[in-house]
Amino acid sequence: MNKRNIQHIKLLLEQGAMSFMVGAGFSKNISLAFPSWEELLHPMLRELYALCFPQANATEESAFIAQMLAEKTYLELASDYVRRKGYHEAIDLYIEKHTPYLQAKTTGGFALYVDGQCIDEQPDMECHEALMAMNVGDIYTFNYDNALDVVGGVDKVDALRRQQEDNEHKLNQLRMQYSDYQNEISVQDRADAEKQICDIQVDMLRCRQEQENCYQLIQHSYEISLTGRRKNIYKLHGSLRKAGEKVNFGFDGDHHRQYIITQEDYEDYPCRHEAFVNLMKIALLKGTFCLIGFSGNDPNFLTWISWVKDVLDKNPDIGKRSPIYFVHVGSCDIPEDKLQLFKNHYITPVVLKDVYGLLAEKEQMRRFLKDIAPDREDAKQHNDLWGSLRFDTRVAKTKDDLPDFDDDQKKTMDTLFERAEKRRIPSQSHLMSHYRSWARSEVANRLRWSWQSPYLPKLAYLASKDDALLLPQVFTASQINRLMEMIPSEDKALQKAYEQQFARFILLRGEKSQALQEESATFEAVWALLFHLDFSNAWKHLEDWKANSMFDKLRRELMRALFQELDENTVSHLLQREAYENVQDYIFAQDVLPFVSGLWRKNHNLFNSMREDNKDMMANRKTYRDVLDDLTNDLLEPDDVVSFGTRQYVYGMDDHSGNWEISAKILHLMIELSFPPTISHVNFFDKKKWIIVCEQLMEVYPYPCLFFSLLYGNDKTLIKKVAQMYIYSPKLRSLMPQMLDEMLNALLDERCPENIRMAIYLGAPIFAKAVPAEQWQDKFYALFERYDWDQYNSEYDLRNQSAFIKSMASMLTDTELARKMALRCLQRGKLIDHFCNSVLVDLREKLPRRDKEISRFLRNLLAQVDQSAHVYVLLNMRGYLPADKLFDKMLACYDLWRSDENLCYAMAYVSKKHPALQAAVRKAVLESKALWETGIHADGSGVSVLNQDFDINRIQTSVAFSSEEIVALYRRMLPSIGLLEQYLPKWRNHSDYEFLFNDWTELMYIMTRFLKKNEAILAEKQTDYADTLARLERVKHQYKPASIMENLLDDNHTSDAIASLVNAVVDAGPKSYLNEYSLIANKIILQDSAALNSCLKHLSWVMTKYKRHFSKQQFSPLLETMFASYEPYFRKENAKSWTLTTAEKDVAEVSLIKLAKVYESWGGTCFFGKNYQALYA
């Protein structure tokens, strides 16, 4: 309970809802010379009752004083003294004579004095400094001494105010002079004046910041109205006058008393000092108090809690929240009657010995103050420590030029190391990174001269760890070995820190992790399993992980969220602020858990309420996500994420030397926080940024980069891009078999998260291109055996799993596995769908030419065909069926295929020796609604996008039409030409014109080929034939956006040019376009075209198909240069990284192999020739 109370005090401090009430005991942390109430009264009692024990020894005197203190209260004794003297000023001066005070030394710092005599040259002000460093808004005290004032910088406020006024006066004078003589002063004078103005402004900013850090002293009620948003120290019972200081005598307008101490002073206080009483009452209603330095017997404490009870009895709701904490130091328990008193007065005791053990009172208080220090202030102090850690970074000429670390530097390093665990993610600002880079340079410089110090490995660790980097990322192996030799054998903490750094580094590299102790072993082990896609074992480790700290519980649950959405009970447990050791960890939980658990969408009101409750705590505070955002903002990003070969436009992008280091930090933080780029369908990390990180790190840390990429799930573009990056990397080539094997194992793992499963379906076929099929096809077949046919949606043929199976099936080399897969598809009988057909097409070339079992299943299908998918399968597998029975069946199911253009093409192709089937094809063509369809509405009011053009010419290559049928087809064409003539001018200025014109161009090429192919018949039977052909050519050229050559010269339209070339070559061959193909070849050689992929594919196709039309003399030198320019990317050793973003490396390889065959047929030899071993399947 005491520990939880301490955590709650810290929470309240972070929320700005806590004030301190400071008693006399707190000053004893500076020196035991500061008196308690009893000690303050001892000399007074000797003076009052000197006649009672003139000859008494010390023991008798102490006994008498104890008796007097037992008979009278402290306040009564003080009143007796005033009555004996006859005036209050006597006890006021008595207090000043017996109360220690701090006084500045000429040499710097402070000394402790009593009555003008120095009693301590170096007083210990650590506890006071820790209290004031918390930047608490209000501190209330009954103490008379000036310890809080001095440490709070009260004395500096007036000096800073005077300096600000002086600066403003100087600044106004300079500006007036500069304005009056602006046209007369010289350039040098103007520069000097501007520099002076700048220096004054900088000093004013410094003064303002220092003023904000200082407390102001409130010792009179009229000063309460001046507090505003300043930090204040309220002296409720008077403030000690300094020796020689000219200060009016009196407290808060009472000129007869300087200090509140007597019974009468306390009784009159509510009337004489009503403003202070009201202030305290308001403070009680608004916030919480933490009492330190009180014994519980102090009269001021007892009087004050009576006010508390009056206030809180009238406001029971506030009282129930226990707004007052009493911090009890020492080895004694709180008496039972005192506990009851606390309970009746809404006070919660915090017994420090129950938390810190039987330590000295001062040490208990020191640890307490350290534990409640708000992280906001801790972060600032942490940054200040780095800022103060300065080194002489000059290049040493000898070892002796390097001075030893001084005591301040050593103390700072020790403090930073002590804070290292608490400051999990320090600031990653440019300034802080500069300080730490500076420190790493210092380490390297000293290592260069074989300099020895046990603090050097500590500095190296701190400068790496605080910069979110690992030691092996910034120092060489030999440097690290030398640093480890300097670690003292007794320094177990630093040894452990180095072990953890190495374990994380090994984890990143995907190697087997060394043994670690405690929870870090489980944490690292889970990540290692996740990175290798071993999800069942990762889940088992998570279930067995008994996390101790709340942050480790949070990290565990974030890992579990990769598998399933967190429930509300778990989230509620993880959002208990008191359970977290620092506010950064808690804010991280509060920041991400509502998204990970889906709370933000399931209970939006609760989500907004949580945000509102914590806005003060999060104000002006850097969260872990902010740190990541700051780092990612420094990354140089591309315009968009595009896979290789699909980029439409190319923009130049300079290399960013800092991208690798920033990326390494981001990856390290994601692991440290268990905060992947995307969890539970929420993307915390922009995919464009992630691609940069992945590009920078994948060759060094391939496993974590792939895992985090797979979390993006069904993002086809990103997954394809990442997979291509991996298989195109020469450095990663040897890892491809293992990585593919782990992906296939993950698909067989029931614990594999669904988003990762979807991503593997997309990425694994790309990895398979770089791995021989013999190494993966058995495991792939096991996956195929698990395929859930009943869940497959035949209308969604691009589903990831089906696309995965089809892609992998196309790369199989084992004929028996291919046969088994084909039989599994055929066994579905009437349930056979288009997916089955696609798989069978991919397997067809690997199947035996004759197979009784395949034939049997196909004959069964032939007997029950009732959907177009069945027709596709039967036609594609027709070699296993009797031709006459197949064709008879096709005639019988005419209605299944007549409106399917692709089936019409297939029927035409197989019907060459079957007249009846040819007649059916002709009938289907003549009835087709897709024939000559332009998509233009009859009134020209709109355009429908065409799925595809029905190419009658493909039908005519296999099926002969009669003259009458050709004329009928011609006449159906005329209205379509008329629509194009009439409405193309209207659509020419439309934003989608070029897109629409591509469809119309394809249609007009089909029309042109039909007219020319049937010229003999049409010219004879149709008098308008020549005019129709001329009309069509005119439309085709008049409204075409640009010529083929013009489009080729404009790289952004190269793809359009290639599309036009396909049609032109089919019509008239490539002979008339050799100059265009020379330009395409040069684009490929230069490697900078936005359509490089299309150029490679098209040139290899056209030169293979129409080789005789290409001149050896013209194209052989072009091909030779082309092979030379691409050879470095495909070498087995020392290959160049594939940086051609507008081409797919595997596509380029296939195209270059085809072109090499043409080149070899001309007598040439090249790298991509017959002896070349392909990298990709």
Low-confidence stretches: 648-657, 793-797
Strand content: under 5%
| Main β-sheet, spatial strand arrangement | 6-7-5-1-8-9-10
Average pLDDT rating: 86
Task: Characterize the main sheet.
Answer: 7 strands, parallel
* Portion of residues within helices: 55-70%
How would you characterize the overall build of this protein?
The protein is mainly alpha-helical. Among the domains are: 374-395 and 405-509, no CATH class; 547-621, no CATH class; 626-771, no CATH class; 778-881; 1042-1177, no CATH class. It contains 60 helices and twelve strands. The longest helix is centred in the N-terminal third of the chain and has 27 residues, at 154-180. It is elongated. 37% of the residues are buried.
Task: Give the tags.
single chain; 1177 residues; mainly alpha; 7-stranded parallel sheet; 3-stranded antiparallel sheet; 60 helices; 12 strands; 4% strand; elongated
Quick structural gist:
The chain is mostly helical and 1177 residues long. Among the domains are: 374-395 and 405-509, no CATH class; 547-621, no CATH class; 626-771, no CATH class; 778-881; 1042-1177, no CATH class. Helix content is 60%, strand content 4%.
Write the layout of secondary structure elements.
Elements: H1 2-14, E1 18-22, H2 24-27, H3 37-48, H4 58-71, H5 74-85, H6 89-98, E2 101-104, E3 110-114, E4 117-120, H7 126-133, E5 138-141, H8 147-151, H9 154-180, H10 187-213, E6 215-218, E7 231-235, H11 263-272, H12 274-286, E8 288-292, H13 299-313, H14 316-320, E9 324-328, H15 336-344, E10 347-351, H16 353-356, H17 361-372, H18 375-388, H19 407-419, H20 430-448, H21 455-465, H22 471-474, H23 477-486, H24 492-509, H25 518-531, H26 535-544, H27 550-560, H28 568-574, H29 583-596, H30 599-602, H31 604-613, H32 615-618, H33 624-633, H34 659-673, E11 678-679, E12 682-683, H35 687-697, H36 702-710, H37 716-728, H38 736-748, H39 754-768, H40 777-785, H41 800-810, H42 815-826, H43 834-843, H44 852-863, H45 868-876, H46 883-892, H47 894-897, H48 901-910, H49 915-927, H50 952-956, H51 963-987, H52 993-1013, H53 1015-1021, H54 1025-1038, H55 1044-1049, H56 1054-1068, H57 1074-1086, H58 1092-1105, H59 1112-1126, H60 1145-1161
Parallel strand pairs: 1-5, 1-8, 5-7, 6-7, 8-9, 9-10
Antiparallel strand pairs: 2-3, 3-4, 11-12
Helix pairs in contact: 3-4, 3-5, 7-17, 9-10, 11-12, 12-13, 18-19, 19-21, 20-21, 21-23, 21-24, 24-25, 25-26, 33-34, 34-35, 35-36, 35-37, 36-37, 37-39, 38-39, 38-40, 39-41, 41-43, 42-43, 43-45, 45-48, 51-52, 51-54, 52-54, 52-56, 56-58, 57-58, 57-59, 58-60, 59-60
